[in-house]
Amino acid sequence: KGWHSRGYLPHFDSAETTQFITIRLADSLPKSVAETLARKSDDFAEVDERLDAGFGVCWLRQEEIAVAVESAILHFDDVRYRVLAWCIMPNHIHVVIDPSEGHRLGDIVHSWKSFSANKANRLLERKGAFWHRDYFDRFIRNERHLARTVEYVENNPIKAGLAAESKDWPWSS
Fold first, then answer.
1. Of 2, 42, 117, 159, which has the most beta carbons under 10 Å away?
2. 96 with 141: CB under 8 angstroms?
3. Are residues 56 and 62 in contact, defined by beta-carbon separation less than 8 angstroms?
4. 129: three-class secondary structure by DSSP
């Protein structure tokens, strides 16, 4: 499919392209911060720093919610995509995948978000938006970029001060 947009962030979709994806909870950033960052849509480092600060309710801290998200991510591993790395943070997730032929990135992300949001809202006895409407993705350019990205994903809990070592964080590859 190549480059496309749903009116928010631009996305690149191709079955031959490894993708790094970040999905955040609907309340993960204060509105003023989200609006400022939206004007700088390519500044992922600043967005991630703000996410790691732990804004919002941080529903993903709850084990049963994290389990639902983990289940969604891993359910079609080696069927619709191959999961290379993943991490569930308190208010966002990171996933690195190789989409399989015939499976669009937007459809994959939609299935994760839909399944996990429905399950989480039932568990939380609530209604309304669970995930932010869009997601961030970046295609992986080469092996070095892939290695750095996987290292980043798996070390995100350390960087955010949530774990001393990556092996100490239960919600990660």
1. 117
2. no
3. no
4. coil
Place of tokens 């049963």: 64
Tell me how many degrees the CA angle 169-108-173 measures, rounded to the nearest 5: 20
pLDDT in tens, 136-163: 888 899 999 999 999 999 999 999 999 9
Of the candidates 80, 75, 109, which has an alpha carbon nearest to the alpha carbon of residue 93? 109
Nearest to 24 by CA among 2, 3, 44: 44
Joined together, the tokens standing for residue 118 give: 């429905």
d(CA 98, CA 120): 26
Q: What is the pLDDT of residue 78?
A: 96
- What is the tens place of the pLDDT at every residue in 8-64? 555 566 667 899 999 999 998 877 766 666 665 555 666 778 788 888 899 999 999
Q: What's the CA gap between 70 and 73, in Å, rounded?
A: 5
11 contact partners, CB below 8 Å, separation of at least 6: 3, 4, 5, 105, 106, 137
Q: From the CB of residue 154, how many other CB atoms can be counted at a distance below 10 Å?
A: 19
The structure tokens listed for 20 are 């790094």
Q: What are the Cα distances from residue 13, in Å, to 19, 67, 141?
A: 9, 27, 13
